[in-house]
Each structure stands twice: as C-alpha cells, then as structure tokens.
Amino acid sequence: MGVDLESVSEATSGAIGSLLSTTLLYPLDTCKTKYQAEARAHGQQKYRKLTDVLWEAISTRQVLSLYQGLGTKNLQSFISQFVYFYGYSYFKRLYLEKSGFKKIGTKANLIIAAAAGACTAVITQPLDTASSRMQTSAFGKSKGLWETLTKDSWSDAFDGLGISLLLTSNPAIQYTVFDQLKQRLLMTNKNSAEKTAITLSAFSAFVLGALSKSIATFLTYPAIRCKVVIQAADSDDDDTKKPQRKSKKTISAVICAIWKREGIFGFFKGLHAQILKTVLSSALLLMIKEKIAATTWVLILAIRRYLFVTRGKLKSA
C-alpha cells in the first residue's frame, strides 16, 4: 500500500511548527508550570503572581534556567505533534475513503482526534513527565533527561497518564473547531471551481488557532492543573540531605489537597497564564504549519521523484 505521503507531510509540518512555537515561548511555559505546580495554602505560597517566578530567576541570576528542560520539551513536542498530526490526517483520510462521504462530521472528527491524541499520550508520557519535573525543579538544579527518568521506577515516568488520556479531549476540541472554521472560511473565500492548494493567511490561521485553543483550555483546565501538580518535582528533590522517595501522588490525593488548601478557585489557579501560553503556542503552531505545509509537500514529492528516478537508473544499469 505504501506510505501515505499526504499524512507524512501534515505530520512533518505540524511537528516543525510545534518545535518552533515551543522554543519561542519556553520561558513563559517554565514560569507558568512552576506557578501552577505550587499547591499551598494562601499564606504559605511562594509565588503569589506569575511574575514572581520570573523575578526569582532574575534575582538569583538564573535567567538561563528558564530554559531548563528545553531539549526534552522539544523532543516531546516534536514526537507528539508528529504522531498526532499523522494519526489525525491518516484516520481522517481513511474514514472519508471508507465512508464515501465528501466531508467529515463533527462527531467523527472528535472521535478521530481523540484516538490520535490517546496514541500520542501513551507514546510520549515519559517525556512529558520528565519535562515537567525539569521545569519545576529549583532554578539551576534541574537534572538531565536520563537521570530524571531513572531516579524513580519506570512506572513513575507515566505519572498523570490517566489525566493525559482524559486531556485528549483538549486537542480534539481544538483541532475540530479549527478544522471546521477553516473549511468554512476557505469555502467562503474560494472564487473558482478549480481544485487548487488553498491555504489560510497567517493572520487567519493565528486567529482561528487562538479561538479554538481558548475554548479547549477553559473546558479542561481543572484537569490540566491536577496533572501539573502530579508531575511536578517534589520540593525536597533538590535537597541532597534527604534522598528518600516521596509517596506516589494520586489523582484523588491531588484533588483533595487543592480543595483543602486553595478551595474551588484553586482548580483554576494560573488559568490566565495557561490561556496566554497555550493560545500563543497553538496559534503559532497552526500558523507555521499552514505556511510550510505546501513547501513540505513539494519537498516530499521531490524526494520521492528523485528516489524513483535513481531506482530506475540502477535497474537499467
């Protein structure tokens, strides 16, 4: 049957877009994650505002530590977006071919997106856990990827997997909203009946990406906050005098801790930072993906043609 080149093109452009957006916004992501991970009573909070995290890095001369875990995050982001976009594109095309429909409905789109997201979560969960622990470690004391993963048992590398599977609804909502709005916008702007490679403008892709991600983030934020707390490095991880392992964090224990210490609004702590970061990140990702998708497709076709010609010359020789 061969390789689905269109799905590979979608996956590659999506992964490249994710890599660039993650790198550009990583300091904001580190501040956001450290702020979210702190689950203490109001009088004992180290970070009262998001900017307190940034000020700590500046005052301790650890500004470069805002990039701790960037390599792991980029690796996780690249792999997850490649797997997600490939799975989403491939299953979408397969559904249309098997069903005979010309368009894909919202329900089918949600199911396909959720399935792609679940596969992605299982494959990349260890990297996701490691990057969270590296980001939430004390500034200047973050460990490497291998040391972070092997410090505890391998089962701990899958901390928060249950919530990650639940959060597959986040990209499912986001990309479904984006795809549906994109189709409507392109149908409106299409002036000719010719089937050409029509793409969104950078501004349109940015706006649609921001809108779709805002909706998804607001609906799933309590689960996002719990996941960050579960995956965060323990405060004692950075104290060399106390090396013993902490008890495993469970979803129920984290929910109870947030409820007792911070109340109902604790589940929405850092929502503004999450929306700011994820909206910018997703909007940049989709904008970059839309702009390089055509170039990626041309490159893949060129490589395929080159390999085909080379193989023909070798056979005739």
From TrEMBL:
Residues in Solcar repeats: 5-94, 104-184, 200-295
An annotated GO cellular component: peroxisomal membrane
Protein's membrane topology: Multi-pass membrane protein
Subcellular localization(s) per the UniProt record: Peroxisome membrane
Keyword Acetylation on entry: no
Species in which this protein is naturally found: Salix purpurea (Purple osier willow)
Coiled coil: none
Keyword set, alphabetical order: Antiport, Membrane, Peroxisome, Repeat, Transmembrane, Transmembrane helix, Transport
GO biological process: fatty acid beta-oxidation; peroxisome organization
Sample GO molecular function, one term: ATP transmembrane transporter activity
Name used for this protein in its record: PEROXISOMAL ADENINE NUCLEOTIDE TRANSPORTER 1
Domain of life: Eukaryota
